[in-house]
Amino acid sequence: xxxxxxxxxxxxxxxxxxxFTFSGGEEHIRFHSPxxxxxxxxxxxxxxxxxSKIIRLMMAVDALKRLTSENTPIELxxxxxxxxxxxxxxxxxxxxxxxxxxxxxxRLNFSKVTIWDAHSDVSPxxxxxxxxxxxxxxxxxxxxxxxxxxxxxxTLISPDAGASKKTLKISEQFNGVPxxxxxxxxxxxxxxxxxxxxxxxxxxxxNVLIADDICDGGRTFIELAKVLKNEGAxxxxxxxxxxxxxxxxxxxxxxIEHIYTTDSFKAANEFKxxxxxxxxxxxx
Length: 284
Fold this sequence. Notes:
Order of helices and strands: EEEEEHEHEHEHHEHEEEHEEE
Oligomer: single chain
CATH topology of the largest domain: Rossmann fold
Structural class: alpha/beta
Low-confidence stretches: none
CATH architecture of the largest domain: 3-Layer(aba) Sandwich
């Protein structure tokens, strides 16, 4: 977690703090600042990727409000919104994770909350005073990828129906130059396993770019890349906003040549390279 103060002249400064976890599991935080009473705004940047960080955020907000007598607006930047994929209750007895997390953030009463490329329209609708930075704005920060799309070097592949709207928006932002081809996957409803992947267009002899918001283990993209290669695609690239890559990058070897992602889920230095894959991290 990084915490910054902003003064009236527009200067941004890092606020130092100590934190540790007690033996009983309780999180502790203490800020080291002589005075924050002249600060006009405080900004917190955090990747909420585990439960301890969520508790630490809550402690930080309480401490900062006490230091400022609750008179200074506090903004939150969480590039990856946790529980975004749990935006509906599919089985009776489950919780709606997105609702729970949004309610937690709302209770902290931030003056603004910034997230990147929300998984669906549900999360932004739940969070108070939210700014959702769209995927296309993040993609355009990568000069190489933007140039390849502008020149029509890449055909866009939408991996499933859920990604169609975002994929079409990418093409529109490049004046419709990149062709868009829809893919379709069939799952076993009991196990969740992908049992069939179809590409609804001709990819023979083309360099293609699969675009989506989240890559966890990568099964969707592995199965799709196999079909694309079998149907004659020359080069397969992947643009993912939130690169979790819980199975590592080795699972894509021989299938995907280029991976583009942001530092939303983890810092650039935390990614493990693969000599067979050209990995580019878009740092914001």
